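Lab notes, practical 5.
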Amino acid sequence: MGPSPIRTPSLGTMAHAGPVVWLDGGLVAAEDAKISPFDHGLLVGDGVFETLRVYGGTPFAWRRHLERLAASATGLGLDVPDRTVLRDAATAVLDANDLADARLRITVTGGLSPLGSERGTDGPTVIVAASEMRPWPASEAVVTVPWPRNERGATAGLKTISYAENVRALAHAHAHDASEAIFLNTRGELCEATGSNVFVVEGERVRTPPGSAGCLLGVTRALLLELGPAAGVEVVEATLMPDALAGADEAFLTSSTREVQAISHVDGITVPAAPGPITVRLAEAFSSLVARDLDP
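Output from the prediction step:
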């Protein structure tokens, strides 16, 4: 899809309307935004998305996130707007909502479609929305859920909007006094959490599951793999079994909004250090990267 102009409503129209979103080419008050009941994203979860952390009005790691959005869309056979259009849309949404430190989400669905799995021909629905960032605690407890990720599935490694499994897993975690759920894959290997990647620390060595485990390859995850050597920490991809997490000296989660967050308990067992020294060192390295380069 080529660039298209962004339609900007008058300030008077938006002044009393609450949150503002960008929907299919223009800004609209969230309360007036309309998605068809025939949208394939609503009907069957056909769509992809990216969530970006915004620092001082600038979305972090824009290039990496848009590359992953394009890869996920290609994996589902979806078109996405030109990156310049999406960047202009993001800026317009952040400005309209007066947000400097925020959570920004870009969603692309299959658009108007029949009542079934077949996709329609009208093109995608595209939404850009933002909200204030809620603070994350310094550490969180996790539990392993009984439902595996399918590392060989058609959507493995794609960031799709089909999050019903994650919703169910999070409910399970909350029912077991935890805030995040950990998935194994069909081989019984450590895979990922519902919205974050998992790292385990043994001594000064840090390991995280590889893409072949079926996990989504997070942007923050990739940056930590790159930052490790300069921080004096060996950070590598490795196939991990559940006992690697349960017996870790330290463990942490990474995501765009969490950044680097320590794990305090695994299935009710206390992790020895949360956050431990290696987790702190990598968190500081990530914060330093954000301070010097918002599009690494």
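Observations recorded by the TA: The helical segments are 11-14, 40-44, 62-76, 83-96, 164-175, 219-227, 242-246, 277-292. The chain has a mean pLDDT of 94.
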